Amino acid sequence: MDVSTTLARLGNAAASFLNGKHQLFIDGKFVDAKSGKTFDVFEPASGQMVAKVAAADAADVDLAVNAARRAFEEGPWSKMIPSQRAKLINKLADLVEDNAEELAQIESLDNGKPVTFARMIDIGGTVDMLRYMAGWCQRINGETITPSIPGDWHVYTLREPVGVVGQIVPWNFPLAMASWKIGPALAAGCTIVLKPAEQTPLSAIRLAQLIAEAEFPPGVINVLPGLGETAGAAIAAHPGVDKVAFTGSTEVGKLIVRAAAGNLKKVSLELGGKSPVVVFPDVDMQAAIPGAANAIFFNTGQVCTAGSRLYAHKKVFDQLVEGVVGVAKNIKVGVGLDPATQIGPLVSDEQLFRVTGYIAAGQKEGAKVAVGGKRIGEDGYFVQPTILTDTNPSMSVVREEIFGPVICAMPFDDNDLDRIAREANATSYGLAASIWTSNFGVAHKMAKRIKAGSVWINTHNMVDPAVPFGGYKQSGWGREMGHQAIELYTETKSVFASL
Ligand code: NAI
Ligand code: MG
Fold first, then answer.
1. 300 vs 281: CA distance, rounded Å
2. Which of 173, 249, 355 gets mutated to test ligand 1 (max ligand atoms within 8 A of its CB)?
3. Which residue minimizes the CA distance to atom 44 of ligand 1?
4. What DSSP character marks residue 372?
5. Residue 301 has pLDDT above 90, yes or no
6. Is the shortest distance between the CB of 231 and ligand 1 below 6 Å?
7. Average pLDDT for residues 368-387, to the nearest whole number?
8. What is the pTM of this model?
9. I want to staple 289 with a disulfide (CB 3.0 to 4.6 A). Which of 4, 27, 323, 486 is the partner?
């Protein structure tokens, strides 16, 4: 497959963006990296290069942090009333909506995902998130408190923006992840240095152009494409950054925690997962089969909450596996910009080798391939939707995050909810889980027993801007979305006035 197949499907707006310059956005201006360095961006369906992007490093991070500091302490942003901040965030949401088709095509080209999903989930989700968070601007308040100290007092709290925030996002939902980060930070009144992933920097660069068009004051949002080990590490370590927010691998999450120790910047983390899909024997199979399939195949399995461990009662196990195998065989895998495509390639050659490496390791340790298991073609990063059976908890495919369309299916023969939950919880992660049953007593009892930030009943991968999202255990620190997201970006100040 040649990259021209994909490029031919781009509309004029996306094509003209792709042919333009791809620079850093610092203090309201588009600039090259100080070093003059760039990095290459590859189209996942062909593995061919489609753009060169300015590569920020520590020197550019320094400039961006200084710009963000000035905007925070002295700029018009610091004096802006909440309703004006809301107006700007809503304006950005409108611009994203006005340019939705172009952004969806850019996202599909860069990440490989089906353009149909990019439209609905990535771009639609970004608009929703920005609008929801704009609504928070005028709702961030402290409280008055009655102390027990003798005397006459007026005691109250103020909620103030935490300051300059560094935000490092991954490549699986590039623009949407950026919106989860900048939305609440802007609502709280913070200023931002945002780093998109090196695999998928394009939509963030287009977002920077829309930020300029919306006329945010210079320095409020700086966008720095660059490599993780250089730009990302510099943000995490910078003494002028008050808080760092990260979504990505657990491994890098731990590096960020260490780097943040220098100035004890606040840290929030949304990391990996190994989420169980627990299916009880009384389940509605018509819902459970497509549900379990979508839980793992959506976005080619590159979802932190992907349902990667399928635990089904032995009464329904064979039927369920057979059903999911049927779905896997009929899924249309292809180029993201083809409207008929249901799942695209993986994002990069690195991820292709990681995912196929896990499948091979699983087979070596005794797992059986019920369907899939192989790379598709020789160009691009396509892999077959895959189901592994005969797996056990000692295998790396069961323990570790694969981040591909690979599910490990395991039967259980038990009616004791505590024991079932113990198996579902037997992972170092705790991001999400789904429970499939017609018995709502069982469903809610299981929901209490699962150690994860999100539990879904007869559904999977549901998120909403109003609903907190984040992880137990090694899946992270803090909750994004809902009012919890505002808490991540504000400090509480207590004021005691002796009257
Ligand atoms: P990664 O954690 O290396 O990349 C995520 C972001 O962190 C990117 O913006 C990257 O540039 C940045 N980064 C990398 N090294 C850094 C460092 N030393 N300091 C600061 N920032 C740094 O993830 P990667 O390598 O792309 O994927 C590896 C695995 O991570 C995947 O197979 C998957 O298991 C997991 N992952 C989980 C995600 C999630 O949504 N929770 C998203 C992406 C990856
Ligand atoms: Mg990495």
1. 28
2. 249
3. 248
4. -
5. yes
6. no
7. 97
8. 0.98
9. 323
Residue nearest atom 16 in ligand 1 by C-alpha distance: 228
Which tokens is 276 given?
A: 């169980």
Share of the chain above pLDDT 70, in %: 100
Same fold flag, 3-271+475-495 and 276-464: no
Catalytic residue among 102, 107, 270, 401: 270
Terminal Cα-to-Cα distance of the chain (whole angstroms): 76
Is ligand 1 within 6 A of the CB of residue 198? yes
pLDDT at 378 over 80: yes
Q: The tokens 């590569």 sit on which residue?
A: 55
Q: How far apart are alpha carbons 291 and 324 in whole angstroms?
A: 9
Tell me if 248 CB under 6 Å of ligand 1: yes
DSSP run (H or E) holding 482? helix 482-488
Tell me which residue has its CA closest to atom 21 in ligand 1: 232
- 277 token code pair: 């899909």
Please tell me the distance between residue 463's alpha carbon and the centre of ligand 2 in angstroms: 25
In this model, does residue 1 exceed pLDDT 90?
no
- How are the residues of the chain apportioned to helix, strand and coil, as percentages rounded to the nearest 5? 40, 20, 35
Active site residue 304: yes
- Structural domain boundaries in the chain: 3-271+475-495, 276-464
Measured from the alpha carbon of residue 403, the closest ligand is 1
Q: Cα(482)–Cα(453) distance, rounded to whole angstroms? A: 13
5 band by pLDDT with thresholds 50, 70 and 90: confident
Which ligand 1 atom is the nearest neighbour of the CA of 348? 26
Tell me the three state secondary structure of residue 239: coil
pLDDT digits (tens, 9 = 90+) for 49-82: 999 999 999 999 999 999 999 999 999 998 999 9
pLDDT one-digit tens code per residue, 227-238: 999 999 999 999
d(CA 485, CA 180): 9
CATH domain 3-271+475-495 topology: Aldehyde Dehydrogenase; Chain A, domain 1 (3.40.605)
